[in-house]
Structure formats: C-alpha cells, structure tokens
Amino acid sequence: MIPAQIQSRTAASLAAVERALAELRRGGIVVLRDENGAAGLVVAAECCGPVAFQRLQGLAQNAPVLVTTRRRAEAIGMEIPPHIAGGMGDTNKPITLDLPAGVPVDIILRPHEQGTDQARHVALRHLSRPVASHAPRIAETAIELAKLARLLPAVVLGPLTRDPGNKRRDWARDQDLVYVDAADVLSYDDTAARNLQQVAQANVPLEGAENARILAWRPSDGGKEHLAIVVGEIDPTEPVLIRLHSECFTGDLLGSLRCDCGVQLRGAIAQIAKEGSGVLLYLAQEGRGIGLVNKLRAYELQDDGFDTIDANEQLGFDADERVYAPAATMLTRMGIKRVRLMTNNPEKIAQLSRYGIEVVERVAHSFPANGHNENYLRTKALRAGHLL
Ligand SMILES: Nc1nc2c(ncn2[C@@H]2O[C@H](COP(=O)(O)OP(=O)(O)OP(=O)(O)O)[C@@H](O)[C@H]2O)c(=O)[nH]1
Ligand SMILES: [Zn+2]
C-alpha cells in the first residue's frame, strides 16, 4: 500500500506537468525550475504568438534564446562546435541558439513546412551557431515538455536568475504563470506509467473474436487511456500470447496503406482468437510516440524523399520515442509475467524484459506489402533492425 502523502505528492506532480502541457499547447508561458534553482520561461516555438513572446521577453532576465534538439539543428545544416555537440550518442542533446531581434521564432520550424533547401538557407542565415546554454538542465527539460505536449521539439527560452531560495513558484503565481518543477517533468512518463488505474471493463464481441473484453487503464494525471483487449480466458500460469500495438489512427481506423498497422491489428486479433486466448495492448503512443500531427508532418517529409527514420530526425525527434512502461504495468496488474510476444521489433522484447516481463518466445508478425508500404517495411528491417 502506498502512503497517502506519497499518493497525493504523485498526483500533484502529474497534475503540475499536465497543466504545463496544456499551457504550452495553447501558446502560453511556463515557468520551469530545477532543483538547483536554475530557471527559465518556456513557450513552444510552434505555438508562440507575438503576445506571449513579448511577455516572455519582458519577464526574462536576458534575451530569449531558441532551444531545439541537436538532430533538428543538424537537419537544417547547422554546424555545431565540438564543445557544444556532446558525444557521439548525444544526438538528442538540446542545442541553444541566439535569437536575433526581429527574427521570427518559427524560423527553426520552417524547413519542415516548406521542405526546401531555400527554407533551410533562410533559417541558417538568421540563426547564428549554437551557444552554451545558461542552464542545460532547463533546456533539456523544456524540450522534454514540448515532446510530452506532442509539439515539435523547439522552444523559446527566457533565462531567469538562479533562485536558491525556492521563490520561483510564488513569483510565477504572482505573475499568473503556470509553474512546474523540472524533476516532475523528467519523471513524468515513469510516474504516469506506474500509476495506471483500471477504470472500465466491458465485453465487446469482435468480428472473429466474439469472446473479447476491453479493459481501459487511465494514468492518474487524467491523460489518454491505454487499452487491453483480452480475448478468451487467459491463464497467467502459462506464457500468454501478447501483441503490443501502438496506436495508429491512419492505419487502424482509416485503413491507410502507408504502414502495416491495420493488417497487424486485425491479424493479431485473428491469431489470438485462433490460438484461443491472449491480450492485445492498444497503446496510446501514436506515431511511435510523436503524436498524430507530427506523424503527418513526417509523412510530408517522406513524400519529399526522406525515409520514416530520417523524417522523424528531421523534425528533431528520435527515430522512436515510445516508452513501454505502461505496457509492463498493465501486464503485471493482469498477473502476466511470461509472454509469447507477437512482434518483429527487437526493442519491444528488450523493453518488456527491462521491466521484468519474460519474453519466452517471439512470434513473427509480418504481412505482405501492399503496393504503398514497401519502403516503410524495408526501412524498418534495414535501419530499425526489425526481424523478418
Ligand atoms: N513517426 C512515424 N510513425 C509511424 C510511421 N508509420 C507508422 N507509424 C507509427 O508506428 C507505430 C507502429 O507500431 P507497431 O506496429 O506497434 O510497431 P513496430 O515498431 O512496427 O513493431 P512490430 O509491428 O511489433 O514489429 C504506430 O504508432 C504508427 O502510428 C511513420 O512514418 N512515422
Ligand atoms: Zn500505422
């Protein structure tokens, strides 16, 4: 049993992050502070209007800067000095750029909108080379906030003076600004995953799997639910046939042929039904965790010739931003510890094992190409290590 004060601390931490995400999405300013007192004002670059920008400029101690990921900076052809670039594996390190007066903040985003070399050159002409960040942890957390809000990983950051006395929260309240602690942002995914609650359960007979139930699991911040589709009677003393399916609005609902999600979804239910029992976890992590809107942006880039991995990276994301902690929590709560996992993705096997779920067998789960998704399937095999 978790003590009540810890529960309420957890709920408060999740709620603070949720408020910050909503604020960013509507173009508002968020005050971010780390445990050492470093602080900054954050507005998401893609939502930053003139009113928010001027307010941020007025409140900040120094001139606002643009922060994006190293991937994004490199994608627009920016040279990153070695002392700022970080190590080889540091491709998602935040990169701080001076924002010269009069340069619109969305300049860093335009190359994806227009997808042209010309837009790249305009961005490069206006933005100088990266500078050292006044507070690297604040920059890193601001990027994490933008990603959690399913926005592009680029923010305007207004530096604030160090606040050893923990007065920032009161200051933010006085200014009527949303405040969040960096530690709450960085632990958000894990905290939300550990605190899933089952909130509904109903019989939903499916075509080809009439003995099906859907269980809905809600993170305690009120975020989007994950679903478990249970077919037949599972026996947790034996390895259970499991499919981890990441939400794909276009493939699952519309039957998009750009990917293989639709056939994989229906194919998984059919196979589970054929074997008698099993669980499909329908995970709220659309677009490999970047959200539907960013996936559509990635599709635009793919139409310009980038593959599915490069397109994510052009936008500043990692190739795959999914987390599997919610999946592990749901399986554990259902008493499932050993699974036969239907997947071609070795990362899913590694992640479940990391969270203590034993994958006793991988069950291959591939379907023929459909005339539109050959490149997508080839890229997953060649570049993401998917097994055939
Ligand atoms: N960012 C991005 N996401 C995509 C693209 N195409 C499909 N997706 C998303 O990729 C995810 C596919 O998930 P899955 O089929 O569960 O996973 P997988 O990594 O292919 O692995 P297995 O199917 O288990 O072998 C869904 O969330 C889709 O929305 C794309 O081009 N870009
Ligand atoms: Zn899909």
Poorly predicted residue ranges: none
What's the total number of strands? Answer: 13
**What class do helices, strands and sheet pairing give?**
alpha/beta
Mean pLDDT: 91
Over the alpha carbons, how many angstroms does the gyration radius reach? Answer: 22 Å
The run of helices and strands is HEEHEHHEHHHEHEHHEEEEHHEHHHEHEH
Q: In which order are the strands of the major sheet placed?
A: 7-8-9-11-10-12-13
Number of helices: 17
User: What characterizes the major β-sheet?
Assistant: 7 strands, mixed
Principal-axes geometry comes out as globular
Annotation keywords:
7-stranded mixed beta sheet, 2 domains, binds zinc ion, 6-stranded mixed beta sheet, binds guanosine-5'-triphosphate, Rossmann fold, alpha/beta, DHBP synthase, single chain, 388 residues
Give a description of the structure.
The chain is an alpha/beta fold. It is built from 17 helices and 13 strands. The chain has a 7-stranded mixed beta sheet with strand order 7-8-9-11-10-12-13, with helices on both faces. Helix 10 runs parallel beside helix 15. The longest helix is centred in the N-terminal third of the chain and has 22 residues, at 4-25. It is globular, with a radius of gyration of 22 Å. 43% of the residues are buried. The mean pLDDT is 91. The chain binds guanosine-5'-triphosphate and zinc ion. Residues 248, 250-251, 259, 261 line the site of zinc ion (ZN). Keywords: GTP-binding, Hydrolase, Metal-binding, Nucleotide-binding, Riboflavin biosynthesis, Zinc.
